[in-house]
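User: Could you walk me through two proteins back to back? I'd like the raw sequence and the structure tokens for each, with a short line separating them so I can tell where one ends and the next begins.

Assistant: Of course. Protein one, sequence then structure:
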Amino acid sequence: MRAARLRNPASARNRGRPATPLAGDVREVELTGPDRLDATLAALAAEGIELLIVDGGDGTLREIASRLPDAFPRPPRLAVIAGGNTNLVARHAGAAKPAEIARLRAGGGRERRLRLLRAEREGAPPLRGFILGWGAYETATRIAAEEGRGRGAPQVARTILATLRRAAFGAEATSLRRGVERGLGPGRALAGVATTLEGPLLPGLDPFWGEGDDPIRWTEAPAPAPHLALGLAFALAGRPTGWMRRAGYRSGRAATLELGAPAFVMDGERFEAAGPVRLSAAETLTFLS
């Protein structure tokens, strides 16, 4: 299986470190930014690459996945070397270690097919990723960059506590509590999240309780949100109480969604929207681990 590694040297775990060598004749590509990624992927498609090894975080994977359909007539298989901070996608797709790449190329890996979350907005090419948030979720992502240390679940816990502190006492208190004018429906929304990933996002973090078989899981909290800290604790565990449902905390599953928020975060990066953002989940990628 012809393979190429796309390595992001700016990803959290790669920063300042040399690349771990891979066995065999793997084509090595050092990513320098999104501007040349289209041409890079087109060149790899022309070379007949069948396995893309993404050495980076969730944002690196989003940038690559968003461009794959324009470069490859048929999407290649992917393997993820977890080089980011939280590495949510690698936790679900299965992280590959550099020493295992030769085995994967020989057909000895496990295949997992994950649905992509596609976000379409006016005046911009579609984004393809796995988790998208709005309202206070967007603010929390910025707070994570400002205050967060560490990786994975501990970083998420610190970010949640920092967001609650700022909602109560910080300069962003008013804007955090007001949320956004419109999320998935009429009325203000404090925060919301949508994903195509199944199961807990991280150990102990599963903020969804909607039923059904549709591929997009979503949850949204109202603004203003009564008993915010208590409601957040139950919501993040996917165990809403009766008073939360009556107060407007909602969760469900859908094939498509339309988001009215003026900005959102997809896989760790903020994007603006001049109009509605249409979410769908008809596309898939196959991962090896």
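----
Protein two, same layout:
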Amino acid sequence: MFFGLAFSPDNTLIAAATDEGHGRIWSTATGELKQTVTVDDERTLSLAFSPDGKTIATGSELIRIWDVETGELQHILTGPGDRKLSFSAIYYGHVWPSEIWQVLFSSDGKKLVSVCPEAHCVRIWDTETWTLDKTILGQEAGISPDDAHLAVRVNDTTIQLYRTLDGQLQRTLEDTEKKFASFTFAPDSKVIATHSGSEIMLWNIESGELIKTLEDPERKVSAFSFSPDGKILISGTRRCGLRVWDVESGSCLVRLEHDDGARDVQSSCGYITGPPAFDVLLEDGAGKVALAFPDGTVRIWDIEWSQDP
């Protein structure tokens, strides 16, 4: 079962994290398996390519940094409490330590952010020294395209915006009614999009005001990504569906559904699974969308749209 997907910055590779401890890397052109990195006795839940595409970070019980070409392990990042059961894990009777469900690089490659939701822990790492810079309370994180903002989802109702440079809190977004399932930044770094249930909400970062709401009447949203110009938003849904939205008008331009997209209740290792793994890599007028399906395949779509007004 795949837990995470990531395109390389140059669009030539796609990597997938599996519950069996593997990080697999394929050619997007041929589908050929190019590299496999493996962690023993842990499941790999997240991964991310560095901006130069030469290294890949994987998250399991620890963060590991690998050479993409050779598959060689370069660094293991550890912090306080790693490999220990968190309070929430003990409370719910889990037998595995807290795990890293999200890793992401800043666009300049100088910072790596990791997230352990069970421990409510967001960590910022310096990639020159591979040492821990700062720890913030939270369950999800995202860095704005201009690297100025670090957004942290503290809980279902609160997102905090920090200055990436020094970790200073700048603004707090709250929605106690609809709540936040996840978020992503717009390309101009002035808008942040959140989703809850079947709704996608766009917020002004400076004022904290809600700008617009997009609603899918058929499926709950599971993930999303903006086009480079911010005019198009592509969202994944439960059961491996896809939506293409016009941001300005709020209209849904394309709906794709798949008969074999229903998720199994449990993965091959017996763990309960969530929404489909999803990643998007967009350029001007074109891009690729990848979805992981329950049958163990990763499917990639080439997409194009007109630049004409």
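Residues 85-92, 260-275 have pLDDT under 50 and may be disordered.

Let me know if you want the two compared in more detail.
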